[in-house]
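Hi W., the iron/sulfur cluster complex you wanted:
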Amino acid sequence: MDKLKEQILRTSGVNTLKCMRCGKCSGTCPSYDEMEYHPHQFVYMVEKGEIEPLMKSKSLYKCLSCFACVERCPRNVEPAKIVEAVRLMVIRQQGENHLTANDIPDLLDEDMPQQAIVSAFRKYSK
Amino acid sequence: MKVSYFPGCTLKNKAKDLDKYARLCALKLGVELEEIENWQCCGGAFSMGEDEIASKLSSVRALQYAKEKDQYLVSVCSACHNVLKQTNYQMQNNSDFAFKANNYLAFDNPYNGETKVIHYLELLRDVIGFDKIKENTVNPLKDKKIAAYYGCLLLRPSKVLAMDDAENPSIMEDFIKAIGATPVVYPYRNECCGGYATLEDKNLVNKKSGLVKNSAKNNGADLIITACPLCKYNLEKNNNTDIPVVYITELLAEALGLKEE
Ligand code: SF4
Ligand code: SF4
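Structure:
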């Protein structure tokens, strides 16, 4: 098996073969309109080993980790874990952080809760 | 009775009222929220990677602290609660992860998921009891129609959070009834507000928060309540629909006669 796919399956703990491509995950995804690749596509593209296009896609940073797809998938595939694993594959590389501390001051306003900043860092940077 | 309390970073800063009234109301109802010494930020969002260890250690420390005191671990912030419960679940169900986390933390007694993690709402429902809240309500909020906003973090994934039916929850509606108000059930109560995307995609967040507010308002609500500072922020920044958003603990304080003006 190709190394990238193997690593994503290991990090996510997901069995992509359980997916029956019903599309329910994508149908319920709040970021559907913003994504070039949708949750069900993440699952089957990883299964087919087409991982590089996913790694380059901005869709990685549109997932809100809302667990709607995890909750509503009838086959218990947990697609968000695949999205997370691909994102981790990218940001674990040197120099590939999506957000850096220097970006923060311009993004703040006086009401912004700390929670927004720490969660974004957890999802976008290593 | 005393419980271990994990306030989290935001309740010490932008969401001070959520924290203050949580403590005051619990005390009035016979529970002291004992803040965990030297707690560290949970990180705000659970890292779903099974091989992510370091980012979960602060949660494991809090879990171990509560275990040693033989207390419930309580948080009010939906995000802290979600991270703590998911980390606890991983400690219980993933022996490889638990082995590595214990190896790193080197506690005198290893931690294996013994602590019971509960949200403040579960404390109210399961430990204190909604009946007791009803008895202690001095200002019943009779004329208020209130929309409970669950968002995503409070209920999902339900296999792990195990707090309520994720698609048809009732814990917040029952809370609203206990303080004498009328709950409004509306379709978007468990859909995402846009979350942390607020940092870089205002447009996305505005759309998602707008759907929630509209849905609450169109179903007749006067007010939205939440336990999450980020939900509150995102909903308030959307100014297309005019409906106030308040913390669950502020509303409880009002009902119990503890609210300072
Ligand atoms: S909901 Fe589940 S089974 Fe359906 S397409 Fe998505 S991952 Fe596959
Ligand atoms: S967790 Fe991510 S991919 Fe899944 S429904 Fe939510 S935003 Fe979409």
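Residues 3-97 of chain A form a domain with the Fumarate Reductase Iron-sulfur Protein; Chain B, domain 2 fold (CATH 1.10.1060.10).

W.
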